Amino acid sequence: MTRHDFQTIAGWVKPGARVLDLGCGDGTLLKYLQDQRQVKGYGVELTDANILASIKHGVNVIQSDLEVGLSVFESGSFDCVILSQTLQAMRHTEPILREMLRVGREGIVTFPNFGYWKNRLQVLRGHMPVSDDIPYQWYDTPNVHLCTMHDFEALCAQLGIRIRERVVMTAGKQVNFMHNFTGSLAVYRFEKAQ
User: Fold this and answer.
1) Which residues of 81-107 are buried (b: 16+ CB within 10 A; e: fewer)?
2) Contacts of 155 (CB under 8 A, 6+ apart)
3) CA–CA distance from 65 to each of 13, 26, 49, 59, 73 (Å)?
4) How many other CB atoms sit within 10 Å of the CB of residue 163?
5) What is the pLDDT of residue 1?
6) What is the DSSP letter of 69?
7) What value, to the nearest 5°, has the Cα angle with vertex 157 and ends 155 and 163?
8) Given 3-state DSSP classes, what are the helix, strand and coil percentages for the chain, each rounded to the nearest 5?
9) Is the CB of residue 164 less than 8 Å from the CB of residue 101?
10) Distance (Å, whole) CA 164 – CA 160
11) I want to staple 168 with a disulfide (CB 3.0 to 4.6 A). Which of 1, 9, 163, 183 is the partner?
12) With contact defined as beta carbons under 8 Å apart, do 95 and 68 qualify?
């Protein structure tokens, strides 16, 4: 099954682009982009099982820990660097965003929006949120930095990152009103500020 954010990401990636998919998981997104946009590129993944799954999907994958950076890639090697549903699991958020824009002309990130009203309601009831976009219990989550859309946008401003486009979704449908409150998943396209 294709995730709802894949179509938005594909719409932002030019046909034939050189793409780096960070934390590529089983390679599903990169395979989708290869099929839909004829991209060329690599996935970066840490776990053995996901690397094997990526290879089965026909995806070029490199085993590496994103927390140590992207030093294996030269500056400007890619048209687009994607961090899909991985930002919240990164311990070193600022360095990975900088590295994305060092090795690529633009970046795309997707993350669950902690500001979504159902997440806020669960916190008000005394529990950490569990949802389709945040599917883990507090004790077994890989997520270390949950953020709201406002938090991410403030970080981008602080780092000199210009947001080019933003799409906010809930249950696969785009939301256009009170994004930080009504949107469960945020998708951003960004570049270095000029």
Assistant:
1) bbbbbbbbbbeebebbbbbbbbbbebb
2) 93, 94, 97, 147, 161
3) 25, 15, 15, 18, 13
4) 14
5) 54
6) -
7) 100
8) 35, 25, 40
9) no
10) 13
11) 183
12) no
Give the whole-angstrom CA distance, residue 21 versus residue 11. Answer: 15
57-112 pLDDT tens trace: 999 999 999 999 899 999 999 999 999 999 998 989 999 999 999 999 999 999 99
Q: Measured at the alpha carbon of residue 3, what is the angle toward residues 154 and 94, in degrees to the nearest 5? A: 25
Q: What is the pLDDT of residue 93?
A: 94
> Which residues of the chain fall short of a pLDDT of 50?
none
Nearest to 43 by CA among 26, 18, 60, 68: 60
Both tokens of residue 121?
Answer: 């309601």
